[in-house]
Amino acid sequence: MTQLAEIVAELLLFAQSFTGYAPANDRPDVVFVAQAELQRQACKTPCEVFGWYPYGGKIFLDERLNPVLNIKARGVLLHELVHYLQEHNSAYEDNTPCMNWALREREAYRVQASWLARQNIFGALYSSARPPWSGVCRDEPAKTPPATDATGPG
Question: Considering the entire predicted model, what is its pTM?
């Protein structure tokens, strides 16, 4: 097993224990791509993106990141692994698409921040930009979640 594969396995275990998600049957492939390609695929326009999980089994990371040697880069990988687990556990599918996205992002950032804090890494992870889910779904009507829904952050 390569160092990166070992890190993916460890981070998946952390994400599973933190979120309570069931493990996925497989592990995702991690693909390193140029920043311009990552922006084109994830955002369609220039944006501040370091990782992307488009669903389907591959996590794309900025080729400048090295999760084997850099803790913050490992945190980015963990964030995307949370999205991988969300997909395999059908998490956050009861609201509008925008609200589902916002809830998935909030959870992934919460797991990432908690893990980084356990590594004694504090402070801004990306920039002074506000979290991407802040206020983006105001105009979209939210569905009422089912009374039995116990999924997601509190």
Answer: 0.82
Q: Residue ranges per domain, the chain?
A: 3-118
> What's the CATH number for 3-118?
1.10.10
Q: Which helix (H) or strand (E) holds 81?
A: helix 71-88
At 121-151, the pLDDT tens digits run 875 454 434 455 555 676 555 454 444 333 3
What's the pLDDT tens digit per position in 74-91? 999 999 999 999 999 999
Helix axis angle, 3-19 relative to 71-88, nearest 10°?
Answer: 60
* H or E stretch at 93: none
How confident is the model at residue 135, as a pLDDT? 58
CA distance 128 to 124: 7
* 3-class secondary-structure state, position 87: helix
Q: Rounded to an integer, what distance in angstroms lies between the CA atom of residue 141 and that of residue 16?
A: 31
Q: Note the pLDDT of residue 98.
A: 87
CA distance linking residue 137 with residue 116, whole number of Å: 28
The rounded distance, in Å, linking the Cα atoms of 53 and 80 is 6
